[in-house]
Amino acid sequence: MDVKLVKGSDPKFAELITKTNMASYYDTRGIVWGHDQFLRSWDELDNYEVYVDDIRIGVVRFSYTSETTFLRDLQILTEHQGRGFGSRCLDLVIEHANSQASDQLVLRVFSENPAIKLYQSKGFKKISEVKGLVEMELQLANL
């Protein structure tokens, strides 16, 4: 199956998948979802939709500095999780960061999120943890 990133065009889809996938983490921490904040972030971030063949299965969102690509979101619809799409999508995220001439790719993930194992399998290293939020980094210069 062909996994690809396509420039994002549907903030409602992105918000729904993100809100749904993050609900348990937010509930645990007493975080209230902010619809207006999400819409502002849609305008500020570089948004992509994840497709497998012609089926939209997820969303990926980035921000950048001169040296760093920040992965702000990588969300896969629940019914498509556990099938290798997240791993392939992460390969595309790394390719994208390299295309930005970034030195590193940085992300944050809640400490109990099982995706940490996926990130580690791709070479990400934990650089900090504050209040259950783990920051991870992949150095791109050696890739």
Termini gap:
25 Å
**Cα Rg:** 15 Å
Shape: globular
- Low-pLDDT runs of 5+ residues are none
Order of strands, widest sheet: 1-2-3-4-5-7-6
Assess the beta-strand content as a share of residues: 35-45%
Give the SSE order as H and E letters: EHHEEEHEHEE
Descriptive account of the structure:
The chain has helices at 11-29, 35-44, 85-99, 115-121, and strands spanning 3-7, 46-52, 55-64, 68-76, 104-110, 125-130, 133-139. The model has no long low-confidence stretch (mean pLDDT 94). The protein is α+β, with helices and mostly antiparallel strands and 143 residues long. It is built from four helices and seven strands. The chain has a seven-stranded mixed beta sheet with strand order 1-2-3-4-5-7-6, with helices on both faces.
Task: Give the tags.
4 helices, alpha+beta, 36% helix, 143 residues, 7-stranded mixed sheet
